[in-house]
Amino acid sequence: MSSLVDRTVLITGAARGIGRACAVACAAEGADVALMDIGGDCEAVPYQLGSISQLHATADQCRSFGASALVLTGDVRSSRDCCATVQRTLERYGKCDALINSAGIAAPSGSAVHEMTESQWSLMLDVNLSGAWRMIHEVAPAMIHARHGSVVNVASTAGLVAYRNFAAYVAAKHGLVGLSKAAALDLAPFRIRVNALCPGSVRDTEATEGRMLREIAKSLGLGGEDHEAAFIQSQPMNSLIEPQDVADAAVWLVSDGSTQMTGTALPVDGGFSAK
Ligand SMILES: NC(=O)c1ccc[n+]([C@@H]2O[C@H](COP(=O)([O-])OP(=O)(O)OC[C@H]3O[C@@H](n4cnc5c(N)ncnc54)[C@H](O)[C@@H]3O)[C@@H](O)[C@H]2O)c1
Q1: Which residue from 28, 124, 219, 262 has the fewest beta carbons nearer than 10 Å?
Q2: Whose CA is closest to atom 25 on ligand 1?
Q3: Distance 213 CA to ligand 1 centre (A)
Q4: What whole-number distance in Å separates Cα of residue 80 and Cα of residue 200?
Q5: Domain boundaries in the chain?
């Protein structure tokens, strides 16, 4: 029997990349999914974000497994949007068993800590750290009422170690690991688990239309056609991580197969952080 039958999972950043892979993997395991994404560009982010048509494409893929998929546009920088996202999920499904926070940005980055602007710093923290907190803040009351829930925050190896010229991203992802641990302690009495996933370098695939790795490469000065090779060099398993690898771990953390897992920061990094 599939592991997420009768579960409702809310996923942010679901238009593409890791968020899409998580959504489709949850649907394949029997869950109904609520899919949230900004569905359009953000002025200060120097690359295209997920589009509404990509978000609908994720929903179609989920429905191909027989899942119900609710499409919601919203910006995790907005408390009102996060509140509306959770409310509409609860109206439609009557519950929210799990939240996967995958919405995130990689840029503006590429400047040393003393060279970035305050607005660049604030934007990164607002999306990659405060966005996850807003979603947890909104969903927690319903999970507390149900005495049941699992939250998965998609952090990064940048939540475990630092990278040059990436201070705001590194700080946000370290913060997200800390938030996951703190929320795990606060919510444990209500049988709600909170964990962080720390992916290494994840391949941008046509299937998920992700483009984060290209943006990270640009910021680290690893641009060009062979940026994947540059990342592979640092991976003990000699390959990039696939979005599906991260999704498999997320499904496990959402499922009853991991009932004693909480407050962890689980690397999905081919051994990168073991070095
Ligand atoms: N790709 C990697 O190598 C990698 C590695 C480690 C961690 N991560 C993390 O995984 C998560 C997903 O990354 P990805 O590779 O799928 O990237 P991606 O850019 O392909 O997808 C991110 C999604 O988040 C959405 N988003 C961005 N800002 C938003 C906002 N303010 N509100 C709502 N949605 C917003 C985008 O529209 C996009 O659809 C991110 O948090 C990222 O930091 C990625």
Answers
A1: 28
A2: 13
A3: 10
A4: 32
A5: 8-267
pLDDT at 126: 98
What lines the ligand 1 site, CB under 6 Å?
Answer: 12-13, 15-19, 37-38, 49-50, 75-77, 102-105, 127, 131, 154, 156, 199, 201-202, 210-213, 216
- Report the pLDDT averaged over residues 12-33: 98
Extended beta strands in 32-95, E state? 32-37, 69-73
- Is the CATH code 3.40.50.11270 the one for domain 8-267? no
Q: Which amino acid is at 2?
A: S
Please give the average per-residue pLDDT across 152-164, as a whole number: 97
153 has a pLDDT exceeding 90: yes
Stronger pLDDT, 98 or 216, i.e. the higher one: 98
Ligand 1 centroid to residue 36 C-alpha, Å = 12
Contacts 24+ apart (CB under 8 A), 123-126: 123/44, 123/45, 124/168, 124/169, 124/171, 124/172, 125/168, 125/171, 125/172, 125/175, 126/77
In this structure, the residue with its CA closest to atom 32 of ligand 1 is 75
Mutate to test the pocket of ligand 1, among 20, 75, 154 (most ligand atoms within 8 A of CB): 154
pLDDT at 224: 67
163 is catalytic: no
Report yes or no: 202 and 243 within 8 Å, Cβ to Cβ.
yes
Instruction: Give residue for tokens 């509306």.
Output: 84
